[in-house]
């Protein structure tokens, strides 16, 4: 494998001999330098391992890919994986086994577990309460966060009722939380909380400290700005065990505050490490894009365009729109001027629905509870090359859930995740997963009526032999797989033929890069419930908020061409902002 070129700054990160924090601008080659360090250190240590942890599966895959033919570094004693996987494997599982005498089952999110949607007695005509609306503390106590209760929970009286019965709701959530923990079902959130809880107790510390010290010499943390309270607790513990901590990140790319990642706490931890480095060369983007990044940064780094794109003179393009379907044609016209093709472009938005509308599709979530619709929609998504990995996952999940509902009619599934339910009914999770993909991809809803497609789904399911699991009879299939309502059917089948530019949420493309980015700012901008400010207020006022950092992450994915598609209502403001911050731009 060719060793990639490194700058002096990158080389300093590779060769450092003490715990450190490296602050880097976008495109600084953090991944390149971190992987070089990981390979070097794994080669040096012959007894203890080196761990490289990141926050998303995509980032982890990228690191694995860059390790090339050095496959030995991906095996014990070394570790390359998500921070959650590290916490599961090396902290929570050993302590859980000690406490409960069995291994826990990890599920990705509480949403995968039915009992995390619950009702209080006599709630009337409201939606069920959801775990996602609560913050849990390390002892499982629940705190209802009213900002997360959606408006469509119920009418004004229902919202008042919830306010009055807050304690009752919190107690119910607390009880369900512990029931799930005892049943061995842990979401990533629960596992993080348990890690924090246990790491604060001397008895558990004494069990883990010698194990971890014997296993790891160093832990390298990618995207360190995304560390939340629990991850920082883990890092503090590792450091106290004598393990070297190398953190690499960009504070301005911290966009996970909803799960308590706090840039200030990360800064505080980082300032306690003996070493500090800064990487300010952007190898990814043109000077105009670097200027856009600078206009959104909180001021700690001074970024400079380097490498091949430092001579690209293309300004940032501002595209005004009043209807979302005007965005794609305008963006394609601009891209054409710079010889960029459709596949070079990526539409990015804060909310999935905004980007999806701009690209001309229907959000996966719009399938609602109709299983036939979910299968049709998933088929369009999986067949399309434009669908990003996160949306694919969601689509397959919906189909998997639909199929599972037909196989678990007489079984209590409320407190268990997908893998545990599969185990109970005796179906291999992988078999169900590939069946879900086959079902969605194999049946094409294009040009079919909703009734005809629903009948096809039922026939497909009726023909499967699930071995020991009783196959659902035709009346059950008829009840579970009804034809969806006409209006939604029309919009989903239409979407199958539309999207021409890929789209994703900003959170879905962290760490990635694209020749051209279309950043969409819709008519309705979310106002922060505490400050009342929108992202444009934050940008103008220089407020370092997560909303502003989301814009920064989005813009900084672009290599050559950044297009801001802004609703007409806000376009003058954005143009004035770019002007006042010295960002070369052109209004189209
Ligand atoms: N020393 C170098 N010489 C030439 N190109 C480089 C160098 N270092 C990095 N690059 C290139 O710059 C781009 C950005 O690198 P990389 O993705 O590693 O940055 P990053 O710091 O992880 O970015 P971000 O945090 O914004 O996702 C990549 O295309 C990479 O190949």
Brief synopsis:
With 588 residues, this protein is an alpha/beta fold. The chain folds into 4 domains: 8-96 and 190-279, Rossmann fold (3-Layer(aba) Sandwich), CATH 3.40.50.300; 109-183, no CATH class; 287-356 and 500-587, P-loop containing nucleotide triphosphate hydrolases (Rossmann fold); 362-494, no CATH class. It catalyses: Couples ATP hydrolysis with the unwinding of duplex DNA by translocating in the 3'-5' direction; ATP + H2O = ADP + phosphate + H(+).
Secondary structure layout plus pairing:
Elements: H1 8-15, E1 20-24, H2 30-44, E2 49-54, H3 57-66, E3 79-82, H4 83-100, E4 105-107, E5 117-118, E6 129-130, E7 134-136, E8 142-144, H5 156-164, H6 166-183, E9 185-187, H7 188-199, H8 202-215, E10 216-221, H9 229-240, E11 244-249, H10 263-271, E12 275-279, E13 281-282, H11 287-296, E14 304-305, E15 316-321, H12 327-337, E16 345-349, H13 352-359, H14 371-383, H15 389-407, H16 418-425, H17 429-442, H18 450-462, H19 474-480, H20 486-495, E17 502-505, E18 514-521, H21 535-541, H22 546-555, E19 558-567, H23 568-580, E20 585-587
Helix pairs in contact: 1-2, 4-7, 4-8, 7-9, 11-22, 14-15, 14-17, 14-20, 15-17
Protein name: DNA 3'-5' helicase
Pfam families: UvrD-helicase, UvrD_C
Catalytic activity: Couples ATP hydrolysis with the unwinding of duplex DNA by translocating in the 3'-5' direction; ATP + H2O = ADP + phosphate + H(+)
**Quaternary:** single chain
Shape: globular
**How many domains, in number, for the residues?**
4
Strand order of the largest sheet: 3-2-10-11-1-12
Query: Can you name the CATH architecture of the largest domain?
Result: 3-Layer(aba) Sandwich
> What is the number of beta strands?
20
Structural class: alpha/beta
Q: Helicity level, as a percent range?
A: 40-55%
Name the ligand types. Answer: adenosine-5'-triphosphate
- Report the CATH C-level class of the largest domain: Alpha Beta
Strand content: 5-15%
CATH topology of the largest domain: Rossmann fold
At the fourth CATH level, what is the homologous superfamily of the largest domain? P-loop containing nucleotide triphosphate hydrolases
Query: Residue ranges: pLDDT <50 for 5 or more in a row?
Result: none
């Amino acid at each position: 494998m060719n060793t990639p070129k490194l700058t002096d700054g990158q080389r300093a990160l590779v060769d450092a001999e003490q715990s450190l924090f490296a602050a880097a601008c976008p495109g600084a080659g953090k991944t390149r330098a971190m992987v070089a360090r990981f390979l070097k250190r794994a080669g040096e240590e012959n007894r203890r391992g080196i761990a490289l942890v990141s926050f998303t599966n995509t980032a982890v895959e990228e690191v694995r890919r860059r390790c090339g033919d050095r496959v030995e570094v991906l095996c014990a004693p070394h570790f390359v994986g998500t921070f959650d996987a590290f916490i599961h494997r090396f902290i929570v599982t050993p302590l859980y086994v000690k406490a409960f005498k069995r291994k826990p089952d990890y599920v990705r999110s509480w949403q995968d577990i039915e009992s995390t949607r619950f009702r209080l007695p006599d709630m009337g005509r409201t939606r069920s309460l959801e775990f996602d609306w609560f913050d849990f503390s390390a002892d499982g106590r629940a705190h209802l966060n009213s900002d997360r209760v959606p408006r469509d929970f119920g009418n004004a009286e229902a919202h008042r009722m919830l306010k009055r019965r807050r304690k009752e709701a919190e107690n119910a959530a607390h009880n369900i939380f512990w029931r799930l923990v005892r049943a061995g079902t842990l979401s990533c959130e629960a596992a993080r909380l348990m890690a924090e809880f246990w790491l604060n107790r001397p008895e558990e510390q004494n069990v883990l400290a010698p194990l971890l010290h014997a296993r790891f010499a160093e832990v390298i943390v990618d995207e360190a700005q995304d560390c939340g309270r629990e991850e920082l607790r883990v890092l503090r513990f590792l450091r106290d065990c004598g393990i070297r901590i190398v953190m690499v990140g960009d504070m301005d790319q911290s966009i996970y505050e909803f799960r308590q990642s706090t840039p200030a706490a990360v800064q505080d931890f980082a300032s306690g490490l003996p070493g500090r480095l800064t990487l300010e060369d952007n190898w990814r983007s043109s000077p105009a894009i670097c200027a856009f990044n600078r206009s959104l940064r909180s001021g700690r780094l001074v970024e400079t365009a380097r490498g091949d794109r430092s001579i690209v003179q293309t300004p940032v393009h501002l595209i005004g729109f009043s209807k979302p379907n005007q965005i794609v044609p305008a963006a394609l016209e601009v891209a054409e001027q710079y010889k960029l093709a459709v596949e070079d472009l990526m539409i990015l938005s804060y909310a999935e629905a905004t980007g999806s509308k701009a690209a001309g599709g229907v959000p996966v979530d719009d399938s609602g509870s109709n299983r036939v619709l979910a299968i049709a929609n998933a088929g369009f998504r999986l067949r399309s090359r434009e669908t990003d990995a996160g949306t694919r996952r969601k689509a397959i999940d919906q189909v998997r859930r639909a199929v599972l509902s037909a196989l678990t009619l007489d079984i209590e599934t409320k407190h268990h995740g997908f893998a545990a339910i599969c185990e109970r009914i005796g179906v291999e999770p992988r078999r169900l997963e590939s069946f879900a993909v086959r079902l969605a991809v194999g049946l094409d809803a294009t040009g079919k009526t909703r009734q005809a497609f629903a009948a096809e789904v039922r026939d497909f399911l009726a023909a499967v032999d699930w071995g020991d699991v009783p196959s659902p009879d035709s009346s059950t299939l008829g009840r579970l797989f009804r034809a969806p309502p006409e209006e939604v059917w029309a919009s989903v089948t239409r979407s199958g033929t539309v999207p021409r530019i890929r789209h994703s949420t900003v959170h879905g493309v962290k760490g990635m890069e694209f020749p051209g980015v279309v950043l969409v700012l819709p008519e309705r901008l979310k106002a922060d419930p505490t400050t009342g400010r929108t992202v444009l207020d934050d940008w103008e006022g220089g407020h370092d908020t997560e909303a502003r950092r989301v814009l920064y992450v989005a813009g900084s994915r672009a290599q050559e061409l950044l297009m801001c598609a802004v609703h007409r209502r806000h376009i003058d403001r954005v143009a004035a902002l770019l002007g006042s911050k010295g960002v070369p731009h052109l209004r189209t």
